[in-house]
Specification:
The complex is a heterodimer.
Chain A lengths: L4 E3 L2 E4 L5 E6 L6 E7 L6 E7 L2 E4 L8 E4 L6 E5 L8 E8 L8 E2 L3 E5 L1
Parallel strand pairs in A: 2-11
Antiparallel strand pairs in A: 1-3, 3-8, 4-5, 4-9, 5-6, 7-8, 9-10, 9-11
Chain B lengths: L4 E3 L2 E5 L4 E6 L6 E7 L5 E8 L4 E4 L2 E6 L4 E6 L8 E8 L7 E3 L3 E6 L1
Parallel strand pairs in B: 2-11
Antiparallel strand pairs in B: 1-3, 3-8, 4-5, 4-9, 6-7, 7-8, 9-10, 9-11
The chains are: A mainly beta, B mainly beta.
């Protein structure tokens, strides 16, 4: 596709449930990033993939959060035992390899935990 | 945690006026980028300025960078109602780290 796509665009779940958020990066972009944005704040880094491996997962808030990118393209962010504080917009971005390249963002998934 | 802070947090101007937003950051940087976000969703990259540059232009955008003060400004000239959005500065932090660190943003409202 022409840009980064994310599905679903909105997800409403109940406290304690498991959710998966999907990201399709721009074709050919080996770097993929997940960010989380709370209302009125800037995005905060969660995890970065270079190829299939998580090169930096220092932004994941706790072990309920996990992400995979098994074939080096599509990535899934997984959240177990969701809490109300997990409610936010989850943004995915991709870029070419290398330091300092422009990151192209998807439209985000708005997660609401009731 | 946020790397930088944008100032002001909110700005309301009339169409045709110029809008200036400022950003401060904390650590040394390779480059600084400005993004726009409409309606709290996807971010659009506007402009990148490298640490050895002092000023850069792109259309109606003008960005300055002062590494001695760890600050940057974004100027939008001849604003339009379509410029209404949130604007964020973002930097790459410690050497080798690939994640962008964003400020808290300036919400710009351009009145037609």
């Amino acid at each position: 596709g022409a840009g980064v796509s994310q599905t679903p665009s909105n997800k409403v779940t109940e406290k304690g449930k498991y959710v998966e958020l999907r990201c399709d990066p721009i074709s050919g972009h080996t770097a993929l990033y997940w960010y989380r944005q709370s209302l009125g704040q800037g995005p905060e880094f969660l995890i970065y993939f270079q190829g299939t491996g998580a090169a930096d997962d220092s932004g994941l808030p706790n072990d309920r959060f996990f992400a995979v990118r098994p074939e080096g393209s599509v990535s899934t962010l997984k959240i177990q035992r969701t809490e109300r504080g997990d409610s936010a917009v989850y943004l995915c971005a991709s870029s070419l390899a290398g330091v300092g390249n422009e990151q192209f963002f998807g439209p985000g998934t708005r997660l609401t935990v009731l | 945690s946020q790397q930088g802070e944008e100032d002001p947090q909110a700005l309301s101007i009339q169409e045709g006026e110029n809008a200036t937003m400022n950003c401060s950051y904390k650590t040394s940087i390779n480059n600084l980028q400005w993004y726009r976000q409409n309606s709290g969703r996807g971010l659009v990259h506007l402009i990148l300025i490298r640490s050895n540059e002092r000023e850069k232009h792109s259309g109606r955008l003008r960005v300055t960078l002062d590494t001695s003060k760890k600050s940057s400004s974004l100027l939008i000239t001849a604003s339009r109602a379509a410029d209404t959005a949130s604007y964020f500065c973002a930097t790459y932090g410690p050497t080798g780290r690939r994640a962008l660190t964003f400020g808290s943003g300036t919400r710009l409202q351009v009145q037609p």
